[in-house]
Amino acid sequence: MKTSDDSLVWYVAYGSNVLARRFLLYIRGASDDSIGKHHGARDSTPPRDDCPITIAHDLYFAGHSKRWGGPVAFLELEPRFGVATPGRAYLVTASQLEDVVAQENGLRQMSEPFGIPTNGSIEVVPVNGKYNAIIGLPDIDGVPALTLSTDRDLPRSPPTREYLATMNEGLAECSRERRVGRTEFGTTNQRAGHSGS
């Protein structure tokens, strides 16, 4: 599958993008927003679905973001047994995903489509930005799932209070949805409400 088509994929977010209104900036765009200016996707249709999820990759903070004034979140490229990093999966089209990847790397759009990696594989895209590695995760309900990270050796350091506050707001938002029965945290890389067995 290439990002040039309109097939559905699960984009598994972590860090600040667990907060829905933060992630939606990448889809709808924002010219002047308190949490960043974004061009938005060419297709501004909201995600078809979303759900809390856990990811079997360790999270760390590295690099430097002008927006946040410090490091941002990344995932280790290889999974590790027993790790359950909290995240949120958004059901989007492959072309919307392409535009999200572009914006995460400071671009308006990618120069060409890229392949959707399968579970356990990694696609490194030719960009100068930090989020150049696309990690294939186990499918969710039979639909491909993936997340972003980096293959660059960036200096690691603690995040700013603002960045942590945004992450925590997103996690609390997911927790509220779980309590009212909309979704539930599932097992590693399984859609919320589905067992891993």
Question: Keyphrases for this structure?
Answer:
disordered C terminus, alpha+beta, two-stranded antiparallel sheet, Hypothetical upf0131 protein ytfp, globular
Produce a short descriptive summary.
20% of the residues lie in helices and 27% in strands. The protein is of the alpha+beta class and 197 residues long.
Descriptive overview:
By secondary structure, this protein is an alpha+beta fold. The chain has one domain (8-179): Gamma-glutamyl cyclotransferase-like (Hypothetical upf0131 protein ytfp). The protein contains 3 helices and 8 strands, in the order βαββββαβββα. The chain has helices spanning 20-28, 94-104, 161-179, and strands at residues 8-13, 49-55, 59-65, 70-75, 85-93, 122-124, 133-140, 143-149. The protein has a 6-stranded mixed sheet. β3 and β4 form a beta hairpin. It is globular, with a radius of gyration of 15 Å. Mean pLDDT is 84; it is low at 179-197.
Structural topology:
Elements lengths: L7 E6 L6 H9 L20 E7 L3 E7 L4 E6 L9 E9 H11 L17 E3 L8 E8 L2 E7 L11 H19 L18
Parallel strand pairs: 1-8
Antiparallel strand pairs: 1-5, 2-5, 3-4, 6-7, 7-8
Q: State the helicity in percent bands.
A: 10-25%
What radius of gyration results from the CA coordinates? 15 Å
Number of domains: 1
What is the CA-CA span between the terminal residues?
27 Å
CATH class designation: Alpha Beta
The H-level CATH homologous superfamily, spelled out, is: Gamma-glutamyl cyclotransferase-like
Number of helix segments?
A: 3
Looking at CATH, which topology would you report? Hypothetical upf0131 protein ytfp
Structural category is alpha+beta
